[in-house]
Amino acid sequence: MNSFRPTRRDLLHAGAVLPLGLGLPALLAAPARRPKSCVFVYQYGGLSQLDSWDPKPNAPAELRGPYRAVPTAVPGFRVGELMPQLAARADRFAVVRSMTHGEPVHDRANKMLLAGATVPAADAPAFGSVVAKLKPTAAAVPPYVWLQKFGGGAAPPDPTYLTGGFLGSSVAPVLVGTSHDDNLATPGYRVTAFDADPTLAGSRLASRRELLERLDRDNPLRPEQRRAFDVLTGPGVRAAFDLEREPAKVRDRYGRNPLGQNLLLARRLIEAGTRLVGVVAWCGLKAGEKFQSIETWDMHGNGGVGIFEDGWNGLGFALPRCDNAVAALLDDLEMRGLLDDTLVVLVGEFGRTPRVTPGGSRVPGRDHWPRCYSAMLAGGGIRGGAVYGASDAHAAYVKDAPVSPEDFAATLYAALGIDPATRLSPDGFTRPASTGVPVAELLG
């Protein structure tokens, strides 16, 4: 019989969980590894690869932009200068520089990203719903949570990501943040999704459960029904969603903006047992700005803000906030012993054109470009410090090792311990989780 010998990290983590009632004896009896989970961060609108993960310092000025390429913790790997914190942590993550597909329209490209398919079916479930189906949680928390609803023209053409697609509503996410003024960075904001219904007291809810069990003695409540009751009646889920339990300095470290606070909540949820947290990487507004869109990364020069400016739709505003928040998440997960078992994904639906052009307001911008873009993967068994694939001299087309939406999804499933060929349909033969091939070089 195999015995579990706790590592130093396990013992340090024990101190962090003691207040939750999980003392050292419980830790010693626990399995050696947590089930894997994922924080999937959507850079909604499409991040410019040239100004972030794939800089081209030798390209003409009208292509390369104003930002320098700076060294990282990995020799020979350079990134844009607006990401100094992630540059210092490059040994913890991998970058794919050869993401590619042919769809330049936001809503359709987002559907492809969510489904992990070049031609997704109308009822295709989102990645998170598949993970919730194949890797359910035993904890009394939702298995799948979505933080900040897609909005504007970049949203997928239907709300499949909120319904569970053909897998059904049992694997649909709990949604937090339904509009721009409904977000965790709002002072005093509180998640109310799990508050007791004032018309349904706890005793009445317990009575309903007892009645159901009496009516169905021969067919006890299904596990998902029991978990639903536990979530509704237990204090654990409300505690997990309560950011006020975090020290002010931790909230400040992530950044007092929608992305920073959403990533902090994502960490709390992963720690509590949620399998997948989807986060829309909306960075909020600069002081004094009026709301226009949550499509932070769609940097055409929208609303008079140039792509290289310090405003809601400019890299000078958004990328440092993203750099700060994602670096804080990686540090926090590692400190708590969670990074090895938590896959962190940072990607948009496509990239941006190499050539800088005047936008709708005649200020500099980059247009949609799906032919070549980048993604970041960290934790969850991903090989830290890896740079996979390559673009041409202008980051316009893939030069080496193209990664399709199918292959990207298959890689994520493999990192989470899910066979991409797993059949999702009741017949057991059709609808695999993914038709792609995992990129073995990214998997540790």
UniProtKB/TrEMBL annotation:
Domain of life: Bacteria
Pfam families linked to this entry: DUF1501
PROSITE patterns linked to this entry: TAT
Protein name: DUF1501 domain-containing protein
Organism whose genome encodes this protein: Urbifossiella limnaea
